[in-house]
Fold this sequence. Notes:
By secondary structure, the protein is an alpha/beta fold. It contains 16 helices and 13 strands. The relative contact order is 0.17.
Amino acid sequence: FFQNVVQGPEDPILGVTVAYNKDPSPNKLNLGVGAYRTEEGKPLVLNVVRHAEQLIVNDQSRIKEYLPITGLADFNKLSAKLIFGADSPAIQENRIVTVQCLSGTGSLRVGAEFLARHHHRRTIYIPQPTWGNHPKIFTIAGLSVKYYRYYDPATRGLDFRGLLEDLSSAPSGAIVLLHACAHNPTGVDPTNDQWEQIRQLIRSKTLLPFFDSAYQGFASGSLDADAQPVRMFVADGGECFAAQSYAKNMGLYGERVGALSIVCKNADVAGKVESQLKLVVRPMYSNPPIHGAKIVATILKDRDMYNEWTVELKAMADRIISMRKQLFDALQSRGTPGDWSHIIKQIGMFTFTGLNTEQVAFMTKEYHIYMTSDGRISMAGLSSRTVPHLADAIHAAVTR
Ligand code: PMP
């Protein structure tokens, strides 16, 4: 039956790890995938997560029944509080629907399916560039994907004028995907003032904001500060979507735990929207898994564990910031030509280095350093030990 099936391409991000795994060099370095590593280069399970798992395992009343289609109720409530703020009027007014989904990707996908069925304008504007999975998730759900200008290679910063122009010309009702913080891959976020202007534009043009929040707590180290853009949009009483992931900020990558929230005009609409979300989820995967959601709920509802989490989260964010500084200093000390200050200015897990495809290929071939071909490096994959190797490689790539 399948002899005519052609070989599909490797995923541009996960394919980097496939290539890395095949490389026998002892000096190889994987800066492709956005997963946190310790100073020793090891994956990290947070202490607070281990603690929560112990409590879950020891709970004799634990059962393994199916969760409801919308997931664990406690988890949903706590996730909404985490992103919208404990005192959010929208939560008090019961006009937010939150559904547990399969991490950030699954939350985006469920949101996209809902929009394809129930939104009159099936066009979504996503930033140029953006996380490589975004265009695929929305296209496959049946939305038409357009780009808005976001990054200016000349300044290695935000193309704010381009962004405003492109969103100004979007048709009324169009959906706008916004990275809540720590934009992937560029590490460039709007300032608070710029967010306010974006908000005003989106509301005045009656566009629909869809936040992707995959890095809450990773940008600044503060969960509240990183959720500020989302909260600004909810405070004005308007509608919005938010997809949350606990992959990075709780290190729960493979547990696939996340949430989709839809902020509606009122509680009546929210109830109907929830009923339709169930109809989206049921034929896709019936209901989500229990374990990851239990871990998150256990941590979020206990004040001590929550505090312990914020300390561990801040430590991860701080280590990344320190890697930025160390890499910047290493390039300075080598006298590497060019302005590398964007390494310390950019925010979150990634640095968008500005290295081109050829330079990236050179660094992989000669230095066994793996990254996506757009020159994005995961700062979380670096350590004090590997910074000099990376700095040597960048220096060689730009001076050759
Ligand atoms: N959005 C963005 C911008 C991301 O970078 C990621 C993870 N790389 C995700 C969503 C989703 O990740 P996950 O499905 O693992 O939560």
